[in-house]
Amino acid sequence: MSKNKIVIDLRRTPLTPDQTTDLHAALHKTIVSQLKKAAAAPPPPKSKAKLAVAAAPQTAVLTVTITGTNPGLSNISANLNGTVKSITKSGTISFDNVNSGDIIAISGDSLGTTSITISVSADPINMNFPPGHINGNFFIN
Amino acid sequence: MKYHVLQALVGLGLLLILNNCLAQESTGIKKKAVAGDSSTHTVKDVLTADSLASGNTKDVLTSFFQLAFNKLTGPDKELNFSSNPFAIMLKSDTSLAVDTNYYKYRVLRNTNFGFGLKLDSSYRFNGFSSGVTYALINKRDSSTSPKLFYEMRHNKFYAEVDSFQTKLTAYTLSIKDLNTRKQFNQLVNAFLSKDTAFNKLDSSFQRIVISIAQANKDSFPTILHFLLKKPSYNLEKMKRNVQDSLKSKISNDWLWTLGLSDTTYKDQFFFSNIVLRTELIKGLFGDTITHPGSNFELDVKSCLNFLDDSLVKTRNLRRTLFSVEPGINWVIRSRNSRQSWLEFKFSGSYSHNLTTLYPGENRDSLAFNGTLRVRIINNIWVPLTIRYDPRSGNFLGFLDIKLNFSSFSGLIKRQP
Known about the structure:
The complex is a heterodimer of chains A (141) and B (416). Chain A has a domain at 49-140. In chain A, 22% of the residues lie in helices and 42% in strands. Chain A has two helices and nine strands. The two termini of chain A are 55 Å apart. By secondary structure, chain B is α+β, with helices and mostly antiparallel strands. Chain B has two domains: 2-140 and 255-413, monomeric porin ompg (Porin), CATH 2.40.160; 151-245, no CATH class. Chain B has helices at 2-35, 43-46, 55-60, 85-92, 99-104, 106-109, 146-153, 156-173, 178-193, 203-215, 221-229, 235-248, 408-413; strands spanning 65-70, 77-83, 111-119, 125-138, 255-264, 271-284, 294-307, 319-333, 340-353, 364-377, 380-389, 394-399, 401-405. Chain B has a twelve-stranded antiparallel β-barrel. The A-B interface holds A 49, 52-53, 65-71, 73-75, 79, 89-90, 100-101, 103, 105, 107, 109, 111-113, 115, 123-124, 126-137, 139, 141 and B 37-39, 41, 45-46, 48, 97-100, 102-103, 106, 142-146, 148-149, 152-153, 155, 158, 161-162, 165-166, 169, 172-173, 177-179, 181-182, 185-186, 188-189, 192-193, 235, 239-240, 242-243.
């Protein structure tokens, strides 16, 4: 007899040898077909949060476009975990080792209209500010 | 007959220009609404604080364009168009607004050009005119004012908002679950830079924000007051109000222009006169925040006018007149919108003939002028000028209509 078996206690139910054989065959067929279906199905999806945690650190580039003022009449700062980088005219700010769940905080002043776009998957992906004081946070997905 | 045809053609041309510009602007508005962001830069982006400028200031230097029907009641009528070349270029190439380009085109931004038609009392063509004006000093431009930028960098409220953002970010990063952290960050962004009232945000977020502010009462006095006393407000609105207050500090600053204009004869392209003009404006007695109801402007004009000497048979420019006109413009503003709606300018003008006098002509003359300027709707001003000559005892009156366009959207929406 196979090692991989299931034992069913039939108590006092009388079965003829043929009935016992049929029952074994039916049980075997049902279980094998279910096992085959289970093996063919794709693995259950893992949660996005767990995937993100596993993602490798990346480089985030912030593209800052300032319009309607002269260079030098803006001061835009980006803060990632205490590391602060600033620019005073249109250009880019980049951070290495950016992980999922990090927040890049933007603050500053500009006499012009400011548009900031981030290169990695983030929420939001783009922020626009009218002339004046600027505040906003990028959440890295 | 041909003059009437010319009149009709000129009128039609101006209507077409106006119609075309209105159409362009309405298209721009639609595009912007679809795009949903400010990456589509419009002329309006660079014309800052324009709505608060007095009508007198707009006559000196227009930010986009001005159509003027001058001396409608006098024998020599004028139909003038003046504009800012940079604003017109920006309509077709929005990349000019990017800060590096913006600086490159600073000369054009400070320049106005204009041309016009001279008409006689029967509205017949009486010569062309053209001119150019350059702002030697323009400290009222809020897009390029180092003084305004300095005020922003040292504003206490802005520093308080930055500190509060740091606290909120630290709290957000303390949330372990990433989905919850992301949702909380969306609320932080709505709180910091969206036009949503604080009391319309998530109630648990409101409690957390208030508790963070209360834990640091001394650091966030203004924000705590807003959270507890004015929850229907939002931080973005408060920042806008502060920015408007800072802008008003430069709205009365110096503006000094230098200009050159000329007029041709009606039957020959030859100058009948050339005028070298300078004008200086400076607001007096505080700004529109400290004096919201009304304030005064010092306005000093000076001209050197080269004219045709009619004693010489050939056409020439041998007659030279110098004039200076110092005046005070009283600007009456709406207390809420701070927009000027009525202005009265009183000035005295002194004129001196530098060349040969005509028989019976005085070398020096003096006159007193009063100009009442009424804003009919947002972009349309009607100035009525009365001039009194004390020597002859005569009064002269001129009625003008000035249409100032900072952006066409204002005209379309008929803003109050």
